[in-house]
Amino acid sequence: MPGLDLSDDQLELRTLAHKVAHDLFEHRALEWDEGRVPFPLDDRRRLGELGFLGIALPEQYGGGGAPILDALIVIEELAKVCRPAGFQVFEANTGPAQVVAQLGTERQKAKYLPAIIRGDSSMAVAISEPDAGSAATDMTTKAVREGEHFRVNGMKRWVSNAGHADLYLLYVRLTDEPGARGIGALIVEKDFDGVSFGAPEKLMGFRGIPSRDIYFDDVMVPAENLLVDAGGFRKLFNAFSIERLGNSTVSLSIAQAAVDRTIDYITTREQFGKPLIEFQAVQTELADMVVEVEAARLLVYRAAIEAGHGLPDPLQVSIAKRAANEAGKSASDKAIGLHGGNGYSEEYGIERLHRDAHGWAIAGGTPTMQKVRIVSELLGRKFDQRA
């Protein structure tokens, strides 16, 4: 497809990210997964020193000012061997910090972005609630303006990096208007009085990336931390498309890792006196994996290239996320089958890819919800899923 060739600088960036992934993180990824160990602060700062945490953030705050695609290139290379490492670059460049860069005030950007880019601070996004997951507009966490502060009460669930991140982009109900009309967003610091965290979730995958409930009990948030006022929910979700593009890239990385590991295995493992790759059934399975991965990559790159330094097209992002999420699950599943009994063993790392593939498919909007988004964006219509 024309226009998808990487520049020399981007190829060099991919080579550097590949080297960093294998030299710094590959040998520790399994340990972090087994122990559910949060990504170490020193390693996050190392990523900051390399420029990876601010690669697509504005130069005036210490970032690289590069297009979103450059960040995705780094995310993919890191996440192929260590998802917690890739997650740090994901959150800074395509997650809530990027939303601050796109929508925040000059004061907010100057206050929070430099530390995130250095790796001294991190930011997580808090949207979901026990009764408001895919139906995000059902959220009940509320902020009431009192003078120069907002008083926040409520809770959030499924917050990746909760308890570990220093800052939270909190989606919150600012007025009593129903649905999306009353929703906006605040920047909440971890150390604000009244912020507390539940027990760590024990998830099937996503290990090394903590997940906890967050509780807000009369938390007083300065009014200057208002990122988006009530009625700006659409702006927030348009900006969230960048996060979905990052999410798609992690799924893509899992799918590519499954292909890479499978090729290595089936070209060296012998059965019936010859390498597995000599069997036609094995060839057809590998071919399907490659097609899924390459199709997903083209869709992710298309959305990123057309976005440039700005917001991607929501339709393109939903298409890319759906394709990449499914590629991650499908390729890792096929890899288990092609590895036989070894694919079911922790030793070969395939089961870890498969566990993570399902987690990244759910995060940021499930593949099923992306189908609804695709049709909605395609036809320019909203579909009420409620009774």
UniProtKB/TrEMBL annotation:
Residue span, Acyl-CoA dehydrogenase/oxidase N-terminal domain: 7-120
Cofactor(s) required, per the database record: FAD
Residue ranges constituting the Acyl-CoA dehydrogenase/oxidase C-terminal domain according to the UniProt record: 231-375
Statement: the UniProt record of this protein carries the keyword Oxidoreductase: yes
Domain of life per record: Bacteria
Entry keyword set: FAD, Flavoprotein, Oxidoreductase
GO molecular function terms noted in the UniProt entry: acyl-CoA dehydrogenase activity; flavin adenine dinucleotide binding
Family: Belongs to the acyl-CoA dehydrogenase family.
Protein name, per record: Butyryl-CoA dehydrogenase
Organism, as annotated: Kribbella caucasensis
